[in-house]
Specification:
Homotetramer. This protein has about 270 residues and is α/β, with parallel strands linked by helices. The chain contains eleven helices and five strands. α2 runs parallel beside α11 and α3 packs across α11. The longest helix is centred in the first third of the chain and has 25 residues.
């Protein structure tokens, strides 16, 4: 822990490199849209490992019509009766789209197994079917990237404690999140078992050391960019058209419309 804290990326260095990588992500997005590529990025890892904050940095300057985040809630009673992968298939990208899964079908290998939300038979079937499911995606031309965010027990506890004391982030803590501390070794065994069955040549896992969030974000984004054979797409030059002359339009009286109160004015000294 101490060594990692010593190697903390200075904020000016982090922000400069993050901006450069985000500019490359825009180029990646335009290449995906132009070439009709389907890109799926899976974000998995322990609670408070930094998945959500990394997704925010990835999508910060991207077009939400091209890049979507899939963060599915708990399945409904009807969804529980369907084939397990079915609810995730509905969120896969069409041509020219990127989908970021903020947790994914791997819920079954992690929280569902540890917390008893699935049966041992359902878990066994998942480990058997998952490599086949992902092979079908890859064979059909989907670019699939899977990232596991790794964090220590001490750092996870520190982040949980910070959330408890922060009303802006307290919503991130669910009862299941808090129980992950007491089930640390159970989650470790589940993750190891998951890797044995699903870390395949067609869709390997990429582990992101996320003890230091800045470093983890930069490493993950840089790896994603390096793993996709994108290139800058040339776009036609854009210029504003000339403004036409007046045609006799008069704006209605402002008193006829309801305006938002000027809250910002109350913040200025009088």
């Amino acid at each position: 822990m101490a060594d990692r804290k010593k190697s903390r990326i200075p904020r000016p260095v982090y922000e400069r490199e993050l901006l450069r990588l985000q500019a490359e992500l825009v180029k990646l997005q335009e290449w995906v849209r132009h070439e009709g590529v389907r890109l799926v990025v899976v974000f998995e890892g322990r609670d408070a490992a930094g998945k959500g904050s990394t997704i925010k940095r990835v999508t910060e300057h991207l077009n939400p019509r091209v890049v979507r985040i899939a963060a599915l809630p708990s399945p409904t009673e009807r969804e529980r009766t369907r084939w397990y992968f079915q609810r995730y298939i509905e969120h896969l990208p069409a041509a020219g789209e990127i989908v970021l899964f903020d947790r994914s079908w791997y819920n079954r290998a992690g929280v569902e197994r540890v917390m008893g939300f699935c049966t041992p038979e359902e878990h066994r079937r998942f480990l058997q079917q998952c490599p086949i499911f992902e092979r079908l995606l890859v064979d059909d031309g989907v670019l699939l990237r899977k990232y596991w965010f790794s964090v220590s027990l001490d750092e996870q506890e520190r982040r949980f404690a910070a959330r408890i004391d922060d009303p802006m982030r307290r919503w991130k803590l669910s009862p299941v999140d808090l129980q992950s501390v007491t089930h640390w070794e159970d989650y470790s065994r589940a993750k190891d078992d998951m890797f044995v069955h699903t870390d395949t040549a067609e869709s390997p896992w990429h582990v992101v050391e996320s003890e230091e969030k800045r470093r983890g974000r930069l490493n993950m984004i840089a790896h994603l960019l390096s793993s996709v054979p994108y290139h800058e797409v040339s776009r036609p030059a854009v210029s504003l058209p000339p403004r036409p002359g007046p045609t006799g339009y008069f704006r209605p009286d402002r008193r006829l419309q309801t305006y938002v109160p000027d809250h910002a004015a109350t913040l200025l000294p009088r």
